Amino acid sequence: MKTFKLATWNLQKGPALEDFAKSNFFAAAARSARYQVLGGLIRNSDIVFVQEPPVEIRQETQQVDFANIEAQEQVWSSYNQEADNQAHKSANRPAYYSQFAMRLLEVPSDCPANGSEDAFRLSAMGWAVTALGEAIFVSLHATSGYGAKRNTTEFLKWLAKWVPDQHRNVRFVLIGADFNHTPNPTSYKVENCSVEFSLPTQMTQQSGNAIDGFCCLIVDPAITVKWQNSQRVCTGECAGAIETKMVQVNPNILQAVNQRGYLGKLTAGPLAGTSAVLSSDMWVRMSDHCAVVGAIDISCPD
């Protein structure tokens, strides 16, 4: 049996860390909190999936020679090869960070686009050899504006065909995602594979819905999986790098932006990553989604 510790987080196109000096104090504080949480996810997970990452994460893999690419570990990887209509500073290109060697895969032209046809938002997909054999890992963002359930369904159906055709030794696919809807496991039937989801029971987005979590596409029928409960990284539910909480407000009531969504508490003292000093504790808004962690036990008879 092999256990994979997973994390996924939609960072809501969080601003880059690149230049705190040009930022206002509150923006810098939010960035500091965001990267402390992200650092905690990396330390405690085998693989971290992110959606809507900041620019410096996307820049890790701008130009890739897929004919000669090698497996890498402990680096951010995202698929930035297609021209699209997304502005560089706010583009939505999923990424992953793996503690074990993984080779970034070129996304085929027939892969379903998650979003409008000229805003590809293609998934970041990596291939690795694990203790159980070959596997593929995917960071997915099923965008809401173009049918989240449809996007998820089409992507899973495509994977169930593409993986056996092009990666015949792959036994399973693990996905970390912002599904943008709450999947009903019985609704997802794909040919020749089975699908298992794991999401927290509480809301993971400020709308009040549980839409972030994980999925396993089981390609080899000899594989069995058991999900450990996925949890929100919120203080009192799951320990994290800093104190965090998820807050929902009535969208019809005008509220300050940092009174809703995923909040992080910064303590008085030096502000990590900056030259600023906090005179008192403060809460800052990091995203409209909260980070989610989980684990999956995968077994096979051989």
Q: How would you sum up this structure in a few lines?
A:
The protein has 302 residues and is an alpha+beta fold. Helices cover 14% and strands 32% of the residues. The strands form four sheets. It has a six-stranded mixed β-sheet, with helices on one face. A six-stranded mixed β-sheet has the order 5-6-7-8-10-9, covered by helices on one side.
SSE order, one letter for each helix or strand:
EHEHEEEEEHEEEEEEEEEE
Low-confidence stretches: 17-22
Q: What is the CATH architecture term?
A: 4-Layer Sandwich
Tally of extended strands? 17
Q: Give the biggest sheet.
A: 6 strands, mixed
Lateral strand order in the biggest sheet: 3-4-2-1-17-11
Overall domain count: 1
Question: How far from one another are the termini?
Answer: 10 Å
Query: Mean pLDDT, rounded to whole units?
Result: 83
Q: What share of the residues does DSSP label as strand, in percent? A: 25-35%
What name is given to the CATH topology? Answer: Deoxyribonuclease I, Chain A
User: What is the tally of helical segments?
Assistant: 3
Q: Indicate the structural class.
A: alpha+beta
